[in-house]
Write a structure and sequence with these properties.
alpha+beta; 9-stranded antiparallel sheet; 5 helices; 11 strands; 23% helix; globular
Amino acid sequence: MSVLTIYPDDQPKQGKRYTDFADIERELAGIGVKFERWTANRELTADDGQETIIAAYQESIDKLKQLYGFQSVDVINLSPDHPQKAEFRQKFLAEHIHDDFEVRFFIDGCGLFYLHVNDKVYAALCEKGDLISVPANTTHWFDMGENPSFKVIRLFTTPEGWVAKFTGSEIAKSFSALDEFLAEL
């Protein structure tokens, strides 16, 4: 189940929770974030590779490419046994911005995006079927949990792909990590 919790940025335990897709979509649209549900044009298996996965969502990918000028697309698969999981997690946990959109479509598993906009923090739990598009220059961080388990399609308008500018803020440490967030549900 997708979940959105909106907190005052100085009260990480005082959030308002939304679980209805239309409510989540509306609240995120209010800060310029696209939130959609996608379905594949065929059944996928856990063993399917990048080409098969992209082909299964090609129509939706092509619409986004046309709309936003995305130049590249790839698939990232992170599992609990990945040797660099702790290193990757730490990199994404620090608040940052991008000059580019951050677009993720969850094929499997889940992850938690925190968007820090004005005086609020929007915690968006994304799961299988969810697409989130974070606008350029939006401060945010992402938690994949201690034992990540997700497969996502990423889209980029620049050939460099994921390039972050870290803000130096410690705000992310004040909010629940993915594992704690899931336990609170």
